Amino acid sequence: MCSSKNKEKIKVLIGIDEIYSSEKITNCFNFRDQYEVVLYDNEKNDSNDLTYNFYWLEYEYLNFEKLINPSNKVLFNSFCIRKGLIRKAQIAFYLRKYLAKSQSQLFKHLPETYVFELDYIDYLDEALNDCFEVEQALESNLSIKEGQNTKKFILKSSMTNKGAEILIFDTKKQLKDFFIKRIENSEDEILDLREWVIQSYIEYPLRLKFYNNRKFHLRVYELAVGNLKIYVYRDILALFALEEYKIVKKIEDNNLDIKSHITNTCVQLEGVDKTSEEFANAEEECVKRFWDLRFDENEDRNMEIKGNIFKQIKYSISEIFNCLHHEPTVFQPLENAFELYGFDFLIDENLNCFFLEANAFPDFKQTGAFLNDLIDCLFYQTICVTSDEFFDEAKICEPTQMCLVYEKKNRRIF
After folding, report:
1. Quick one: pLDDT band at residue 360, thresholds 50, 70, 90?
2. Which of 239, 232, 382 is nearest to 315 (CA)?
3. Phi first, then psi: what are they for 357, rounded to 5°?
4. Which H or E element spans position 55?
5. How far is it, in rounded angstroms, from Cα 182 to Cα 191?
6. Distance CA 4, CA 8 (A)
7. What would the mean pLDDT of 180-195 be, rounded to a whole number?
8. Do residues 255 and 248 lie in contact, with contact meaning Cβ atoms separated by under 8 Å?
9. Rounded distance, CA 407 to CA 227, Å?
10. How far, in Å, CA of 359 to CA of 169, rounded?
11. Cα dist. 287→219, 240, 282, 291 in Å?
């Protein structure tokens, strides 16, 4: 590495609307002498201005036309085309296509997923015809005997996140009522969101007695760099529901406690005053470090379980990007760009790990006040892996929390 003593400072423009993330990113750069930080201002900054070396901005603020082919050396924080990863229907389609022609074991880590498109409520039956397995299961549920479990599904909008636009259902009527309600709350007969996915609901998630048998999912941060290396950030979050998870044999009126099923932190803390002690206590109960969790009373077994789960996560993420780098129309990594994603995984009672979805520009503040250092370290090590290498700067520390799981040139897959 070259010494940075005699170099001009690297000019960084930061424009992240969410204050929590903006301050942390800024602080990471300010800790380094070779970086000079300027905060983005909508009124003052011109998107055509390429006088900076590093742009860490909201997606909407990035001038991709200028940044992709700059006249000077420029690094920025998002790929332009990545809908194949972050839209649930798109990634479901391309993963199914990939699995059909490969010997990948990724299918073991994916819930059954069906793309569901609906423009008008009158065409619900026709739309379900394209999801034949779902339609058949819903019909079979009608004849389920008393005391038996129905086959359940979860409906998700292809583009929304934070637990929005979700329905857990086991009858066609529940699905129809959901869309009717959406239309009643709209001024148009045409559904504003037409692209959805229906997944088999993982009805038996892992529940840990040490945490009152509450359902949880894992938020895994992943860093995609250049054209293309994939790193998994080792410090994983476990996001818990606040209430005990109880299995419902059949979904009936008001018998499904949605807050015990949907583990997104924003859903769990909805309506709680953010300045209150209640919020602070609830946040601490919702958000925990994966590596601190107790899966078993025996410590050796405890670490073995966590190691196996992490291995499944790394394999799944590497395979997902092995799929997507062959699909340039929906995912185009760029040599002078990087992007942080939030991947969500759910563990079932047999310790199988399932990929649920990927989010661009994830909500880092859901980490909460108690685990601030986790995000500080994530941003700092992101700078080490991306900017320091790109601008040939000496690293102050090695990014030990960043685990390389995929490299396009070598197809390094775990």
Report:
1. very high
2. 232
3. -170, 165
4. strand 54-57
5. 8
6. 8
7. 73
8. yes
9. 9
10. 24
11. 10, 6, 9, 12
The token pair that represents 137 in the structure block? 């299961």
If 0-12 CB within 10 Å is exposed, 13-18 middle and 19+ buried, where does residue 168 land?
middle
Cα–Cα distance measured from residue 170 to residue 140, given in angstroms and rounded to the nearest whole number: 10
What type of residue is 330?
V
State the CB neighbour count (10 A cutoff) for residue 112: 14
| Both structure tokens of 299 | 């410590």
Number of Cβ within a 10 Å radius of residue 57: 21
pTM: 0.93
For tokens 């008001």, the residue is: 254
Q: What is the dihedral of CA 205, 293, 265, 361, to 10 degrees?
A: -100
Q: How far apart are CA 128 and CA 118, in angstroms?
A: 9
Q: Rounded to the nearest 5°, which phi and psi values hold at 55? A: -115, 115
Write the CB contacts of 306 (distance below 8 Å, at least 6 apart in sequence).
290, 291, 293, 295
Reduced to 3 states (helix: H, G, I; strand: E, B; else coil), residue 59 is helix
Q: Backbone phi, then psi, for 367, in 5-degree steps?
A: -60, -30
Question: Burial of 380 by CB count in 10 Å (0-12 exposed, 13-18 middle, 19+ buried)?
Answer: buried
Note the pLDDT tens digit of each residue in 371-406. Answer: 999 999 999 999 999 998 899 887 777 889 999 999
